[in-house]
Amino acid sequence: MNLLETAKLTKYFGDTHAVDNVDFTIAEGEVLALIGSNGAGKTSLVNLISGLIQPDSGQIFFQGADVTHQSVHGRIRAGIARSFQIVNLFDELTVLDNVALSIFSREGLTRYFWSLADHQHAVWQEALDILRQFGLESKSQALAGGISQGERKLLDVAVAYALKPRLLFLDEPTSGVSTREKAPIMDVISSIVRSQKIAAVIIEHDMDIIFRYSDRIVVMNQGLILASGILEEIKKDPLVREMVFGPSHA
Amino acid sequence: MSSVPLPFERRSPLKIVVWAVPIGALLILLPRIITPYQTILLTYGLAMAIAVLGFNLLLGYTGLLSFGHSAYFGVGAYTVAFMVKYLHVNSMELFVLGAIAASVLVTFLFGFVCVRYTKIFFSILTLALSQVLWSLAFKFFNVTGGTDGLRVPTPKLLGIVSGEKEDKILFLAHDYYYYVLAVFAICVAVMWLIVHSPFGKALQAIRDNEVRARFVGIQIRRYRLVAFLVSGVFTGIAGALWVPLNGLTTPDILYWPFSGEIVFMAVLGGFRNFTGPIVGAVVFNYLKTSAVGFTVYWQGLLGIVLVFLVMVLPTGIVGSLRLLWAHARRRLSQ
């Protein structure tokens, strides 16, 4: 059974068909790359599934349950988490606090105002363990607003990962970082995601990263799914070749 | 084992005791050192400090600037006045409980509407709603006394201490001061616990980045509403403590300039730290009293102070002192 399925998912912004009758699936533990040119509808699709925006029509099923009209909170509880294209962190809190907040929320502890956050030893220890996994332990006491872009990208993913998701959306996890930093960032993310058997959807423009880290590729264009398959199949598709590699490769 | 110190290893409760005990001792001893008039001024300051602590849960910790906190202060004060006028109650404890109940009710109603908005929309909505209460107090003369207000006599404290037989000034400067100080200490402790709890962390997360807070599973509106409720209740308690001190409640405390004064106090002390609002409330009280005595244009003088604060000391008194202290420590270590 698929972990997530969308049925005829549609979202229009005025005359723009951001997501147009999309049937999208991802299996348990699968690492999938979502590619397409700017404005193809990749981020809109992720926004719809994660609950940031509501669809005009269509349905979203997660582990067989209809989550189309569920709140963001409900989807996170179900196991859907995401990172953002433009890093979204609590800049005035420490790196450790950023991750700890996810754990406090996941455990339902943020409702407690009669106990000290500092005394939740298990939460802080787990947050530190996660930072260690992401190679950010040495930055734990720094403000999230004061670390490098590459570290911020990793922290963005770490915050989402701390929610213990079954499905993780990674919206351009290496955008805005130097070419040299891209592979180490993806190595860290990929090893964690695969070791924990988390299904992941990576939106990316860098083809080297897509080919190296994903099991399957879904190509979007003008709100539609153009093609879906493993790397070799996708490479042979003339439409994809034209769109991704340019007219000379069609 | 990790080499990185975890929060509970870095923040020892002993550090709080080191500064809280001397300040507490000083506040206990002060009435023996200063004049009754100065003690009463300090009592006003402590009552206002509770209101500003509550206000700052919204501004400093949740990122919501309320321009309508006069409403909850007024609800506290008018509840006490109504209890005296209609129920002939004289117990300070019942006054505080009544003020809490009334502020929960009003704050919930107002908060339910206001927390759906942020930034300027939130501020304007809180301002508008507070002015609804002001107009009710202003126009319903038969109930509220209109501009004449309602008189509140000295209450009975803990069912035993009453100011009716002794000199009112001495009662307010001694018995009532210690009563307000005790309530103030409880409020400070409760607020400290709230802002350092996981709930307080969630509020700071909402303040910093609402979208991200949503995507770590925090239910934004619900948390804002709870913060709004707590904030309003603190301000209501402050109103209840303030009115026996003043002896009278009028619609002035529901009018928007009073909300402005609460904002002023938070900015004066520094709203990005816990103690700033307390210092701001006490200092503002002395500043206003001095300015009123110094010139008839006291509002202008306070305006100049506010401009100076925003331009030169944007982090307020406590924030600036902290910066100076950090600078001095750096210089000494070099």
Gross morphology of chain A: globular
Q: Kindly state the mean pLDDT of chain B as a whole number? A: 91
Taken as a percent bin, the fraction of beta residues of chain B is under 5%
Q: Identify the strand order in the major beta sheet of chain A.
A: 7-8-9-4-10-11
Strand order of the largest sheet of chain B: 1-4
How many beta-strand segments of chain A?
Answer: 11
Question: How many structurally independent domains of chain B?
Answer: 1
Number of domains of chain A: 1
Number of helices of chain B: 15
Poorly predicted residue ranges of chain A: none
Structural class of chain B: mainly alpha
Largest sheet of chain A: 6 strands, mixed
What CATH architecture label of chain B applies? Answer: Orthogonal Bundle
CATH architecture level-2 label of chain A: 3-Layer(aba) Sandwich
Protein architecture, described:
Chain A has a single domain (2-249), classed as Rossmann fold (3-Layer(aba) Sandwich). In chain A, 37% of the residues lie in helices and 24% in strands. Chain A has nine helices and eleven strands. In chain A, strand 8 (167-171), helix 6 (179-195) and strand 9 form a beta-alpha-beta unit. The two termini of chain A are 35 Å apart. Chain B is mostly helical. In chain B, a hairpin with a 3-residue loop joins strand 2 and strand 3. In chain B, helix 4 packs across helix 5.
Features:
heterodimer; A: 250 residues; alpha/beta; Rossmann fold; five-stranded antiparallel sheet; globular; B: 334 residues; mainly alpha; ABC transporter involved in vitamin B12 uptake, BtuC; two-stranded antiparallel ribbon; two-stranded antiparallel sheet; 76% helix
